[in-house]
Fold this protein.
Amino acid sequence: MMYYSRLRLLGVAGICLIGVLLCLPNFLRSPSPSLPWRQIHLGLDLRGGSYLLLQLDLKSLEHDRLQSLQDQARQTLLDRSLGYRDFARDDATASLSFMPRSDAERDAALKAMQSLPPVVPNEFTTSEKDGRIVLTLQHEAMLARAREAVAQSIEIVRRRIDATGAIDPSIAREGDDRIVVELPGVSDPERIKSLLGTTARLTFRLLAPNPSVASPGSTMLEDESVHTQVAVQDHVDVDGTDLTNAGAVIDQQSGGWAVTFQLNSAGATAFANVTRANVGKRFAIVLDNKVIEAPNIINPITAGNGQITGGFDARSASDLALLLRAGALPAPLSVVEQRTIGPSLGAASIHAGVISLLTGLLLVIAFMVLFYGRFGLYADIALFANLILMVAILSLFQATLTLPGMAGMLLTLGMAVDANILINERIREEVKRGRGPLQALQAGFDRATGTIIDSNATAFLAHVMLFVFGTGPVRNFALTITIGIVTTLFTTLLLSRLLVVRWYALARPKELPV
Amino acid sequence: MLSRPLFRFVRDDRRINFMRGRHMGLIVSAVLSIASVILFFQPGLKLGLDFRGGIIVEAQTPGPADFGKLRAALDHAGIHPDAVQAFGSPRDVRISINAPEGADREAQTQKLVDGVKSAISAAEPGTQVLRADAVGASVSSELFRDGLLALGFSLAMILIYIWVRFEREFAISAVVTLILDLTKTVGFLAITRFEFDLVMVAALLTILGYSTNDKVVVYDRIRENLRKYRTMPLRELLDLSINETLNRTLGTSMTVFLAALPLALFGGSTLTGFATVMLFGIVVGTSSSIFIAAPLLLLMGEKRLRKEAVAD
């Protein structure tokens, strides 16, 4: 180990040089877009911003599917002229059940249910219980549906957030049914929270013949324009998926704000048919199970465009138009975790982190020189290289750096010199035993290496666990320490040893400075 | 100046008889750990927002904060905070509310944070919100579970690693020592009332990793000496090993301590607690490497260690 080949020498120097180059882009404000610059991203706790964790409402997804499955089942039974009674839907067990008209029809009804097309494989099971036929949604299949719904939702969430003008948002899936939204620079996320908390499912449906009482095939919904309950038919005549455009305008008759919309040709045809057949009746515009307004149909609307006036102001009209343009979420999302850091706290945290990092580095550097002399100085050079390499690797992966991440860097630097201390103490012992300088160095390096690898391996394992189970800033802490352990092995086992070996080769000392 | 180190912790030929104090060390450690376990149950840890759920809003008012006015404004908005307190400068206010109960508590939690923000900016125009965190009850229980899993798996991995690299006696002594260290740190948390949150779990794990590292170095030397001095009595051999590694043990503890110290002093509210607990853990970990880990080996029995070392 006392001889470094030229190749190895160049290798170590090369890695350090690449490290310095990779660090450089972090000091440039706006790198040229033509160059493959890679910078460290500052975490939200350092640059200020909002973190939102959104949870998809799995129950609502199940409820919707049960409802559509029930419609399908009824239709299939009707088509095959099979009778049924007492058709029940149970949201708690996610199941449907009914009693066939007679025992003779039971097998046929069961077959009919088995023939229903599933949306995802193995979506539901069919069985018989106490003479009833039971369809039960499977949890695994619903999770698969949730994953699909999350994928769709991410697109819609992105469109909605982009429309607010937020800069550089990050939107990502977490687990089966969650979405993480990070909004740098947004210190007041209330508007975005309310935009994301709206499903924005728009439907056009006729009112029940008698709108004041609920009847089969209709549901009582809140009419927001007059604050009463009205019965609205469950059958949807036209829905928001047929919208091609929406915008906020000032209504020329009333002078208030309104939202105009444009339907595609399928929607326009359906709209024309319904309005033509139901002149004089009331037609409800329903948004997320609330009636915005329910005007009388005066003339058939055939052009496929219309206007919603529901007591909007400028903000609520433009928000609704934005939501309609971005599309409806497949299921409601709710915010389950919010963390907002104001810009002033972020700046203060950067300051605190940098001050701590520099002070800590200085203290460790001073300690090493005072307690280990020349070899301590070499350890300090390696320490500096270690810091550069950590920043280089973080830049290379364009990783995020948070305040706990900076703490991780500092602790890594404190731990890194442990390897130098081990080697130095070992060399010192060998010298005390009466070995010559060369043999002492040789034995010191060789014997300490095993110990260094052992002690770093345990720290590595502990922090990998923390990375796997941790979230957010803690994960970042574990990441920087894990990267730091790798760079430490390089700088102590190769770089600082190289410095010692080169010094020995040049100075040929009679005595070692230990 | 560079030709010789200026300072040493202990002279190289100094032989301190650590094993003489082994009973004392074990008893003191056991008493402290038992006391810590009692403190863990009564009064218990102060759970941070991550693990208890609820909201925290930190704001800076334009002038010195008028707590009465802020409380009245919150009360007027129908919000009943669990604490409205000062932190840092007289202009800094922290408002914390525990997670609400009831069916739609997730939605309530999110509504509360917006309510608090608008109430205080109405009461004190020009107020800057420094931080607004709201963690729902379901998320906080998941975070808690994940935190404990991380701790548990780390301990298990360390046990397996030492078992593979050393012998069973070493692995068991190491894990017993680590558990003693960990309980004391938890007791320290209970006394100082630092909030126990995810960052604190990270601190505990770092202490665990650091303390293990320390033990591995001492054990490594013990194993080496077991092979080198086949006839030396175990007690003497353990003393020799501790003394030989003493400068290294103190040196590394010192550098980690020096690295964590600025974090405790200047790290701001997020890191002060974390770094203070780290400092405590470094002191505990270092002393347990000297006074606990090796004496435990002596208790495990000389014969078995000898036999296995020779068999290697």
Notes: The first strand of chain B starts at residue 46 and ends at 47. The domain at 18-48+140-311 of chain B is CATH 1.20.1640.10 (Multidrug efflux transporter AcrB transmembrane fold). Chain B has a mean pLDDT of 87.
